[in-house]
Specification:
By secondary structure, the protein is mainly α. The protein has nine helices and no strands. Helices cover 82% and strands 0% of the residues. Helix 5 runs antiparallel to helix 6 and helix 5 runs parallel beside helix 7.
Length: 213
Amino acid sequence: MSELKTEEEQIEALKQWWKKYGTILLVAVVIVVGGYFGWQAWQRSQATHISEASALYQNLLQASGDLSDKDNQKTVAYISNQLEKDYSDTGYAMLGQLIAARLEVHNKDYDKAISDLEAAAKATDDASFKAIAYVRIARVLAQKADYAKALATLDKVTEPQFLAQREETAGDIYLLQGKRSEARAAYEKASKALGNKVQHPLLDIKLRDLVKG
């Protein structure tokens, strides 16, 4: 009898515990299970979101291959705007802004290109993207013959992996001003930054032309 009573007491205790804590336990289980499946759904949503942005960017790249075509220009303008509007949380939006600026340069809308590139650089913490944007801004400024500002913009490019690109761009700007010795020094820095293992035929040609001159 004592064992039966013990079991009855245990059952009664369990009933009392369930009455007191059962609802809380069920809610906790629902939250945990719901959270898990919610996380899975969110991950699937994010994967779809990035996949859509990637597909748009591929179409953008294809259209930007020939900016002389008016239809391609419309496509570039539309898709780059869509990426910025609906996919600003992905890297594809920033890449789209670079291509949009290329279109603006193609149409000689230099001020708009500079403004968009500056906004893109300001909107990101990615040092590499900032460096690419600043180099392109410097090149656009050079096309406007604003050489001093172009060189000052290059000073913002501090990432080591962009040193060669920065110096080559500086050399191009000096050459546009007729400053051959400064151009040569910049090209030599660019060549040194690349190292012996990296081939850059165009940079080699630029250096040879200055040596001959």
